[in-house]
Write a structure and sequence with these properties.
The complex is a heterodimer of chains A (379) and B (496). Chain A is of the alpha+beta class and 379 residues long. Chain A has helices at residues 17-26, 77-86, 99-102, 110-115, 123-126, 161-165, 199-210, 235-249, 260-270, 291-298, 321-325, 340-344, 354-367; strands spanning 3-5, 10-12, 31-34, 49-52, 59-63, 68-72, 89-90, 133-140, 145-149, 173-181, 183-184, 188-194, 216-222, 226-233, 255-258, 280-285, 302-306, 311-316, 332-337. In chain A, strand 8 and strand 9 form a beta hairpin. Residues 1-7 of chain A have low confidence and may be disordered. In chain B, the strands form 4 sheets. Chain B has an 8-stranded antiparallel β-sheet, sandwiched between helices. In chain B, strands 5-6-10-8-9 form a 5-stranded antiparallel β-sheet. The longest helix of chain B is centred in the last third of the chain and has 18 residues, at 402-419. Chain B is globular, with a radius of gyration of 23 Å. The chains are: A alpha+beta (379), B alpha+beta (496).
């Protein structure tokens, strides 16, 4: 296993899962697991050697009719999406790419997406990465190889550790192989753009659309464009549902965007592309109906709404975690873009209440007793 | 039979003190200690296993649950949480040296929030009551385990319950937004809420499906969905299991995710038809029910597509429901499959493995071969969309040795599922039932990691002792859901 000494940090490049286990077991310094290196600027900076997993790449098994795909953890997401697309399938949770904010777009891996539990606009109806994460093989902070979950779509055998690993940002274990549930791609993807003059009006419209019987799959708000409603599925169904939705809610779309343009619109929206020019971006999850009030209290420079109002991407000129986190009573805020110095001084992830924080600390110790994996990143 | 942990004589000796203490923490009438009333709690729906607990306590508030658990923590008392007691895997089976904390008094819906599309309910509210509470506004709660008229939402969270519609709508875990959890130390913590996802570790995701091993959930927030405009079903016969399996694969490969997709083999069809006269064909080897739901225009379109796929996969006889009465008639036989099998055999015993669907013909052939070896017959029903098998082993507990043979047969079937790339349980949970088979699916390190997670919450291992994780000592063979004629614990509950 080649090892390259950098000026400050060593770079370790395991070739396979056994290498990963050996390197972690032998580590005398903290390790930062790195897949596509697109999310290194999220969370508290870590002083650690880099465990570069790029060689753990490749689809291990994919059977479209089983709705299951197994891949090595550092398989590029783009490669998986290409393979799924060739069989008329997709990842229903539609991972956004926050590389768009950081200037590192395009290189993320399936393991990185799952470790960060990233989901795009369809989250509100189809679930998050966690909901499609069926099983994995990984290495603990003690260098032990283990597996959890399964390779079938329905399984309740043992603790649901994929849920725990999803969103743990490489602080509990290093994924080496993952199994995800996949879904049929829609025959037609359609976006209706509705002129809306305020966040409050947009959230009301999104709530009505998502609560309708017309299977609206995503609903968001871009103040520059208006409310965005998405209908997907078989073409005849999309056409009929569009008509029914517009009649029921008395909508007159300013624009109707179909196909690849619709998909690109939602990917850019969920990835916060419109906020790329800002130095500070928070991602805030709240009950959808609370979003207008939260927006009034946080005073964002610019913002986007997704998940029918339940997700706020907000850009600021200063970090001010206290202002952001005091703006909601239920929910969480993650600092997804800020200069390193600011991140070093801020809890980028939502601090847990004391009882949950104690449980989280014990779980961290259970997986990583020596504190080797990404120490401090989520603190 | 599975062995239960050896009871702690010291705890049993302190029974009177424990009961007295509990009476100081909850209304005195909410502590059950007399033998007659304790009998009602001695098992769940895995009736082969029975055990009277030390005492049963029925708290009425989260504060009382916290007080009871804090007391149990201080005094080293073991705890078995219990909802409606409908577990098929022994998840709520008491222990002789444990108190049962029964949550039956947590029966209120606290908040119906349409703008946020969610309902907040106490843990003892039944699954179906949530759907009923929002039905007038056209909403429902999607997961629909067959026991939904009785099983509680808290129990659903503990077991990560599924249902016929979970291929399209997900299991409990995909539909729960938040819980209030009381830890084994008696601390109260809220995980999640009306918002989506976790801001730190997903402790909510870990709690769902933890089978009562890490605390007691007292309140649950679930997402509700708008009820689909319409639902229609197809009833399709096949000359062999292989073409039925190929049809299921082809439906999914064409981008169709049906609301439900159920398969029955010849013995199950015959039993169901003899029982409810649903009009099932008796000359086919496999029967498939495909249900499509959604906007009417979409359902009508998909019915045509599925019909064509079935015809191309050697279907013999395709019927399409044209009204609600016909749709329900298609389902009547499938939903009566368990009691129907109960009519043709003195006892039956339900398994719950999941396999990759492509392995279905091979696994069913192997089960057929095992029938010869164990000298017992099997009827198969199958959640075909997600590969979740429910083989029903037919036996007679009054014939010496048949119970043991049925248990051995069941264990062989579950090993077969694991060998085929599947898992021990798709929706019933591990409980005590499949506990000793965990080592077949997971190696020592896999289980060690899960143990550490358990210890992170319950370092004294007092919660639901003897469940899920194999103990060091084994006694005999594994137990399953045994149903003896007329002796089913919840005869009024549909099971499918």
């Amino acid at each position: 296993m080649p090892m390259t000494e950098g000026p400050a940090q060593a770079v370790l490049r395991p070739r396979d899962a056994a290498d990963v286990a050996a390197l972690i077991a032998a580590a005398r310094r903290p390790l930062e697991p790195v897949g596509g290196a697109t999310k290194r600027a999220i969370g508290r900076p870590v002083d650690a050697d880099r465990l570069e997993l790029a060689e753990l790449a490749g689809v291990v098994a994919y059977e479209p009719a089983e709705l299951v795909l197994t891949a090595q953890a550092a398989t590029p997401l783009a490669a998986i999406e290409r393979e799924l697309g060739a069989h008329g399938q997709r990842l229903a949770f539609e991972p956004p790419d926050f590389g768009a904010l950081h200037g590192t777009a395009g290189g993320q891996t399936i393991g990185g997406v799952l470790s960060a539990n990233l989901a795009g606009s369809r989250r509100v109806t189809a679930g998050a990465a966690r909901d499609h994460f069926l099983g994995f093989s990984a290495v603990t902070g003690a260098g032990e190889r283990f597996k959890a979950g399964g390779k079938v779509v329905k399984n309740v055998t043992g603790y649901d550790l994929p849920k725990l690993i999803a969103g743990s940002w490489g602080t509990l274990a290093v994924l080496t192989e993952v199994t995800v549930r996949v879904a049929p791609a829609a025959e037609l993807d359609r976006t209706l753009v509705i002129a809306t003059d305020s966040a409050a009006a947009s959230v009301r419209l999104c709530t009505a659309a998502l609560g309708s019987a017309h299977d609206v799959s995503a609903a968001g708000f871009d103040p520059r464009r208006g409310t965005l409603l998405r209908l997907e599925g078989f073409a005849a169904s999309v056409a009929a549902r569009t008509a029914a939705l517009c009649a029921e809610l008395r909508l007159q779309p300013a624009e109707t965007i179909d196909g690849a343009a619709s998909r690109e619109l939602w990917h850019a929206h969920a990835s916060g592309a419109a906020l790329a020019g800002s130095a500070i971006v928070w991602r805030i999850s709240v009950p959808p109906a609370d979003a207008p009030g939260v927006l009034e209290r946080v005073h964002a420079e610019r913002y986007l709404l997704d998940w029918g109002g339940g997700l706020i991407l907000a850009a600021f000129d200063s970090v001010d975690a206290a202002r952001v986190r005091s703006a909601f009573s239920s929910g969480h805020a993650t600092l997804i873009k800020a200069p390193a110095a600011e991140r070093a001084a801020t809890a980028a992830f939502q601090p847990l209440p004391p009882v949950a924080a104690a449980a989280a600390a014990r779980i961290k110790a259970a997986f990583d007793p020596r504190g080797v994996l990404n120490p401090g990143r989520m603190d | 039979m599975i062995c239960l942990p050896t009871p702690d004589a010291d705890l049993i000796g302190r029974r009177e003190d424990i009961v007295r203490a509990l009476r100081s923490l909850v209304a005195a009438g909410n502590v059950v200690e007399d033998e007659l009333r304790l009998a009602a709690y001695e098992s769940d729906a895995l009736t082969a296993y029975r055990q009277r607990p030390l005492a049963v306590v029925l708290p009425e508030t989260t504060a009382e649950v916290a007080a009871v658990l804090a007391f149990a923590h201080r005094e080293g008392v073991k705890v078995v949480p219990r909802g409606a007691g409908t577990s098929l895997s022994g998840g709520a089976l008491p222990a002789a040296d444990a108190i049962v904390v029964a949550l039956g008094k947590f029966n209120r819906i606290l908040d119906i929030d349409y703008p946020n599309r969610c309902v907040v309910a106490q843990c003892g509210v039944t699954n179906l009551a949530i759907s009923h509470a929002v039905a007038a506004e056209g909403f429902y709660y999607a997961p629909d385990p067959s026991s939904q008229i009785a099983c509680t939402i808290g129990g659903n969270v503990a077991e990560n319950s599924g249902g016929v519609h979970c291929l399209k709508y997900g299991l409990t875990t995909n539909n729960v937004l938040g819980v209030e959890l009381v830890t084994p130390q008696g601390e109260i913590v809220r995980l999640g809420g009306k918002h989506l996802d976790a801001g730190h570790y997903d402790l909510l995701g870990l709690t769902v499906g933890s089978e009562g091993l890490i605390g007691i959930v007292t309140e649950v927030t679930v997402r509700i969905l708008r009820r689909p405009q319409t639902a229609r079903a197809l009833l399709i016969g096949f000359p062999d299991i292989g073409s039925a399996g190929a049809c299921v694969a082809a439906i999914i490969a064409r981008g169709i995710i049906p609301a439900g997709m159920e398969m029955m083999d010849r013995p199950a069809i015959a039993a169901a038809e003899a029982f409810v006269h649903a009009g099932y064909p008796l000359d086919v080897e496999a029967l498939l029910i495909v249900e499509l739901d959604g906007p009417a225009v979409e359902v009508d379109d998909l019915i045509g597509r599925v019909e064509a796929i079935a015809a191309a996969n050697d279907a013999v006889g395709i019927r399409v429901s044209t009204n609600e009465r016909e749709r329900l008639a298609f389902w009547a036989g499938r939903k009566a499959a368990f009691p129907a099998v109960g009519r043709i055999s003195p006892d039956y015993y339900c398994m719950d493995g999941t396999i990759p669907r492509r392995e279905l013909p091979r696994v069913l052939r192997a089960i057929g071969a095992l029938q010869e070896r164990h000298g017992l017959r099997v009827a198969n029903v199958f959640h075909a969309g997600d590969g979740n098998l429910h083989p029903l082993i037919l036996y007679d507990a009054n014939v010496p040795g048949e119970t043991d043979r049925a248990e051995a047969f069941g264990a062989d079937i579950l090993r077969l599922c694991v060998d085929a790339g599947g898992v021990l349980t798709g929706e019933h949970g591990v409980g005590i039932e499949k506990r000793d088979l965990m080592t077949y699916q997971f190696d020592a390190v896999d289980l060690e990691v899960q143990h550490r997670v358990k210890h992170a919450f319950d370092p004294d291992v007092r919660f639901n002792p003897g469940k899920v994780f194999p103990t060091l000592r084994r006694c005999a063979e594994q137990g399953r859901e045994h149903v003896h004629a007329g002796a089913e614990r919840f005869p009024q509950l549909p099971r499918f």
